[in-house]
């Protein structure tokens, strides 16, 4: 038993949730920069621009843009072998459609990658993680095929610049969130399924072009997809519940089917026929999807759900309401079912389905952490949560034969919540002194879960 020698242990963040410096060094506005703090419904309140007096969590976040050397040194102290992070598209192309990239933005990520490499930490990079240059909304963002070319130009610059520094790339964060939260998934204003499926189709083509580029010019690179972890059990052995669960899961898994198999599954095409949805297919698209199959599948895993014949799925950010509860599982304070065995189930589901390497790039426990009078933060609950999930990964690898190549915990340093903009929902091993209003010293300190390097 045990994990492979070169297993990518580490932590994960996202640029819009940690960097801050939202207009520093030539960066443009992105879709996250106009999202205010507050309770999530489907997505937080968003505005057309910056309104004085509103609080925008991404503007300062935890100031990782300024603190990255200190933060990466602390990651190294924990023994990280990988750091899953993202590049902020608007740092490289401030408006999205610029003719030339912003050198200051490129230089910043050179510095970040060099710092990782100094400590033997492998960067695992998301190309677009819940942020899209706001300038692309004038085209309709991903509803417009032109955005594929803007994305490809962005990717071409990244691959050329960071070839030799970054091996592992993911094209879009939680791409299936286009069905649930199109603004976060790609700055898309979408009120109909036709609009969402058109935007998703264009992202599939853009991802395939990125994969194809890497395969043709940078063979050492591995380019993967990233799925937002939606997993469910049937409410009962009633065939109606089982079929309803299967149908509901297909709404999310088809994203993986397209990117891992290179074509739309028949069940989705039949659904499009019934719903009158027409994809904007052009000559060469089918060949591109097939040639642009991803090298690995990465995903987030936080909870499982229960689906049944009465489910009318209501997705609030990260907290879907299915109409059913699982009596066998405990929940977090945010209502997320804690299900370590579900992680093993998800690994087997994906490996049985696709037989390609897998990465878990988000997993962790969000909690209110108490700072004691002496500065200590005792988060045994987080240690216990992670220990139980890691045990199930071990079983998936050594009993089930799953090819799992990496595991990065979400929010390894406290960051603002993507869903609500809160800081009080903390995942990290490193505490950051910032509150829900963005006030604090930004000082870093170690929680018990930080541990020591062995």
UniProtKB/TrEMBL annotation:
One Pfam family named in its UniProt record: Glyco_hydro_1
Listed Gene3D superfamilies: Glycosidases
SUPFAM superfamilies for the chain: (Trans)glycosidases
UniProt-recorded Gene Ontology molecular function terms: beta-glucosidase activity
Gene Ontology cellular component annotations, sorted alphabetically: cytosol
Assigned keywords, A-Z: Glycosidase, Hydrolase
GO process terms (BP): carbohydrate catabolic process
Top-rank taxon: Bacteria
Protein family according to the UniProt entry: Belongs to the glycosyl hydrolase 1 family.
Name of the protein described by the UniProt record: 6-phospho-beta-glucosidase
